[in-house]
Amino acid sequence: MLVSARVFRYCLIIAIVAMLVSIISKRSVPFGGSILKSSTVKSIRSFSYTSSSSNGGEGGDYSSWSSHGSSKSYSTSSSSSSFTNPNAQSTSSPPVTTSTASLNYDSALTTFSNYSVAVAYQPKDRKPSSNMFKKSNRSPALDSPSGEDNLFVSSQVSDGSIAVGVADGVGGWSEAGYDSSAISRELCSNMRKGFESAGNASTTPKSVLDNAFKEVLQSEAVEIGGTTACLGVFTPDLKLRVANLGDSWCGLFREYRLVKETNFQTHNFNTPYQLAKIPQHILRKAAMEGRRYIIDEPKLADEYSWDLQKGDIVMFATDGVTDNVVPKDIEIFLKDHLEDKKDAKLNDVAKKFVSEVVKVSKDGNFPSAFAQELSRLTGQKYLGGKEDDITVVLVKVV
């Protein structure tokens, strides 16, 4: 009996020690300065773990958020991916570029009377499918150098105004086997053409968006899809009007500080407002199954009007940027690469910025904005960048 009591005490002590070791091993590292990323460029800081929206604080295990899926949803139903395209084709990403291959702008760097405009983008890695029964031929529409994102930069119209913008094809349609790049590409093309043919300082970006989307609905180039859009009209008297629908973004930086920005429009987490073109037979099938697709209209876009000053920098970006880095990171980057650097080329800065965002999007330990929001919603700690197509248009007031 005495021996049994001793054995019991020893087992109890061992169990308590094991519990303590387990608790200690699960203590998390906060998102603060103790784990700042080392710079990849001498004397210039890369993006660091300084997110102002961090909820890092207390301990707990961290998980990768990737198990929740990263493509944006096109339906309010969790079963939205049940409809697939029988002719689905797999793709891999085009090379990194700032070329004019997307045809919706003329040059990676364009200088107008009052503005300099630079563009840069990189599609995410898309691994070919291992399904041997899928068709191997590629549709030309899937070869966009910016992936499912797109952008446009108009020519300067007669009164000195210009229009620029970005659009992000909703990736959920790609998972269903359709080309998610077609609608963003055609929308940007139509916005550019529409502004160049009839735009001026009094033209509102919402009207540009509305007219362009009407053309998309009639276009045979777009079979199906959804897209966000964020665009602006810059006038010769240094005024900027912006229209934003969805979770793409525009921010105004003055002396490298964010002073104005657009708000994200979402129905649910990772489900942005989106302009959508969906054939009637698919809508009927969804209705029979109790599902509903998201079909928003240009009139729902938020509108903004900002006064500009010489030296201001305006960034238009798809959520491949804002799902990974926060405004404070962007402020630091712009200051590091532009302040007191008279020889700095805006297109080089834009390309470097995209490159840095790509790096953190692939970093499994980076506290991305997306992972932080997922942590807040689920109560579980998540880390990791969010790989996505990344597209940026930078405009500097000169």
What spatial order of strands do you see in the largest sheet?
2-3-16-14-8-9
Arithmetic mean of pLDDT: 80
Number of domains: 1
What are the low-pLDDT stretches, counting only 5+ consecutive residues below 50?
Answer: 17-46, 49-59, 65-69, 77-101, 131-137
Question: What name goes with the CATH superfamily?
Answer: PPM-type phosphatase domain
* Count of discrete alpha- or pi-helical segments spanning 4 or more residues: 9
Rg over CA atoms, rounded to whole Å, is 24 Å
Briefly note the CATH topology name: Phosphatase 2c, domain 1
What would you say the CATH architecture is?
4-Layer Sandwich
Structural class computed from helices and strand pairing: alpha+beta
CATH class: Alpha Beta
The portion of residues assigned to helices is 25-40%
Q: How many DSSP-defined strands?
A: 16
- N-to-C SSE string, H for helix and E for strand: HEEEEEHHHEEEEEEEHEEHHHHEE
Largest sheet: 6 strands, antiparallel
